[in-house]
């Protein structure tokens, strides 16, 4: 709205004309409703991203625990295999 008033001022046209007064609230309402909708879209997208991040971190944690458990079981076997291969 401010830019339109600035434009009208540069053109030295009257700010408020009776035939055009309906357009400002209509376009302002349209812009406000679009911004409100876009804010909701952003909130939903941020929630989806947060959920995906949490699932990924949980998956990485489970994988690290599983690999640590497997390394503990296979650590002795790998060490013995290394000793046997170096002495052969």
Structural description of this entry:
It is a single chain. The chain is an all-alpha fold and 88 residues long. The chain contains two helices and no strands. The longest helix has 65 residues, at 23-87. The radius of gyration is 33 Å and the shape is rod-shaped. It starts with a helix and ends with a helix.
Give the tags:
0% strand, mainly alpha, 88 residues
Number of helices: 2
Q: Give the biggest sheet.
A: none
Mean pLDDT over the residues: 82
Secondary-structure-based class equals mainly alpha
Order of helices and strands: HH
Strand content: under 5%
Proportion of residues in helical segments: over 70%
Q: pLDDT under 50 segments (min length 5)?
A: none
> How large is the radius of gyration?
33 Å
Question: How does the overall form come out from the CA principal axes?
Answer: rod-shaped
Distance from first to last alpha carbon: 85 Å
Number of strands: 0
């Amino acid at each position: 709205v401010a830019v339109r008033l600035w434009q009208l001022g540069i053109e030295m046209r009257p700010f408020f004309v009776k035939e055009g007064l309906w357009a400002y609230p209509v376009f302002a309402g349209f812009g406000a409703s679009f911004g409100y909708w876009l804010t909701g879209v952003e909130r939903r997208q941020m929630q989806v991203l947060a959920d995906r991040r949490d699932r990924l971190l949980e998956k990485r944690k489970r994988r690290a625990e599983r690999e640590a458990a497997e390394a503990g079981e296979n650590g002795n076997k790998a060490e013995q295999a290394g000793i046997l291969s170096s002495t052969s």
